[in-house]
């Protein structure tokens, strides 16, 4: 799905790929990132570059992403697999959620100096930023796949 395939995959293929590749991965990533960020914030509270508030933001994202992914898994994706018409309103809600996720990524970047480690960062801080880099890339790819390839298949006029 991530390659240069000129043929658009079917909604069934795309939705299954999104669920197994992205939804499952986000569910693995975020709890680990919350725990790491809480540890870094606690241990390095006096360091000027500490990403204060990051663990709270990531914890909030767990809930928001879970609600978003459940709406896709239980409502939107099954309707797409059936080829149901009239999904524009639901898709518009998902696109608005994606805009919110993009704003949250901007907040992560602001809190972490654009994911740039301070000099002398410990192993946990380094692991946190490596994990965040992967999460941000995954979420961006996930959103682009839905916005640019999946959703247009079900939108009549955009």
From TrEMBL:
- State where the protein is found: Cytoplasm
Stored InterPro entries: Hemerythrin-like, RIC_family
- Keywords from the UniProt entry: Cytoplasm, Iron, Metal-binding
- The question of whether Iron is a record keyword is answered with yes
Organism domain of life: Bacteria
UniProt keyword Translocase, yes or no: no
Q: Which GO terms describe its molecular function?
A: metal ion binding
Primary location class:
cytoplasm
GO cellular component terms, alphabetically, are: cytoplasm
A Pfam family (short name) is Hemerythrin
Q: Where is the Hemerythrin-like domain positioned along the sequence?
A: 19-153
**Per its record, how is this protein called by name?**
Hemerythrin domain-containing protein
């Amino acid at each position: 799905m991530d390659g240069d395939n000129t043929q658009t995959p079917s909604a069934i293929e795309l939705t299954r790929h999104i669920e197994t590749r992205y939804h499952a991965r986000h569910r693995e990533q975020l709890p680990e990132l919350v725990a790491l960020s809480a540890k870094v914030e606690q241990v390095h509270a006096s360091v000027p570059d500490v990403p204060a508030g990051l663990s709270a933001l990531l914890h909030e994202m767990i809930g928001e992403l879970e609600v978003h992914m459940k709406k896709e898994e239980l409502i939107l994706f099954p309707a797409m697999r059936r080829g149901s018409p009239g999904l524009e309103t639901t898709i518009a809600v998902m696109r608005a959620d994606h805009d919110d996720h993009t704003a949250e990524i901007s907040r992560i970047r602001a809190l972490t100096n654009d994911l740039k480690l301070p000099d002398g960062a410990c192993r946990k801080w380094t692991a946190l930023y490596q994990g965040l880099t992967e999460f941000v890339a995954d979420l961006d790819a996930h959103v682009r796949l839905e916005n640019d390839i999946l959703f247009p298949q079900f939108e009549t006029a955009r």
